[in-house]
From TrEMBL:
<dbReference type="InterPro" id="IPR001867">
    <property type="entry name" value="OmpR/PhoB-type_DNA-bd"/>
</dbReference>
<dbReference type="InterPro" id="IPR039420">
    <property type="entry name" value="WalR-like"/>
</dbReference>
<dbReference type="GO" id="GO:0000976">
    <property type="term" value="F:transcription cis-regulatory region binding"/>
</dbReference>
<dbReference type="GO" id="GO:0032993">
    <property type="term" value="C:protein-DNA complex"/>
</dbReference>
<dbReference type="InterPro" id="IPR011006">
    <property type="entry name" value="CheY-like_superfamily"/>
</dbReference>
<dbReference type="Pfam" id="PF00486">
    <property type="entry name" value="Trans_reg_C"/>
</dbReference>
<feature type="domain" description="OmpR/PhoB-type">
    <location>
        <begin position="93"/>
        <end position="192"/>
    </location>
</feature>
<dbReference type="GO" id="GO:0005829">
    <property type="term" value="C:cytosol"/>
</dbReference>
<dbReference type="GO" id="GO:0000156">
    <property type="term" value="F:phosphorelay response regulator activity"/>
</dbReference>
<feature type="domain" description="Response regulatory">
    <location>
        <begin position="1"/>
        <end position="82"/>
    </location>
</feature>
<protein>
    <recommendedName>
        <fullName>Response regulatory domain-containing protein</fullName>
    </recommendedName>
</protein>
<dbReference type="InterPro" id="IPR036388">
    <property type="entry name" value="WH-like_DNA-bd_sf"/>
</dbReference>
<dbReference type="GO" id="GO:0006355">
    <property type="term" value="P:regulation of DNA-templated transcription"/>
</dbReference>
<keyword id="KW-0238">DNA-binding</keyword>
<dbReference type="InterPro" id="IPR016032">
    <property type="entry name" value="Sig_transdc_resp-reg_C-effctor"/>
</dbReference>
<dbReference type="InterPro" id="IPR001789">
    <property type="entry name" value="Sig_transdc_resp-reg_receiver"/>
</dbReference>
Amino acid sequence: ISGKEESTITKSGDSVSTISIPFSPSATETMAISEFSDVPLIVLCEADTDMDRAKELEAGADEYIIKPFSPIELLAQIRALLRRTQGLGFKPVRLVSTGELTINFTTHEVFLSGRRVKLTPVEHNLLSELVRNEGRVLTHRFLMEKVWGSEYADEFSFIKKYIYRLRSKLESDASKPQMLLTERGIGYRFIKP
């Protein structure tokens, strides 16, 4: 990541990404990582201004630790972050309502302006992934891995077909989408209707 160090600490399936920023902080790197990963993110930085911390946290960092720090402090922060994100009362979102669109992740029902929309399981999984990441561009590879599995990560032709089907069912004009937007050469983005 352009002159920055990135490391992942893994123990029994738990992982946290840390970004070490040696000079001036740049929220761009933090945002790039948080757009493509749900792994908790800790920024380790020498700079210590309120503005620096605010930028990194707004960009997607979960924690911000100022250098120098002790390994004991870092380990304690990692453990606390894992507790907050992976258990101890954490409940997955079961219902999302965004504008005119409502998705029930438990029953796999989708409603648009109060009317039920029938989706196949694959269509539902693809839409769910896009809605959970509202406003973010999700790459073709990311969507393929999440919806079809890692063995299909390079088979981008599937996505076009299913995005077209979703647009036909959810957009007022599938040729001029307002919710399911294409980011040419990158992937797709969901925007609230």
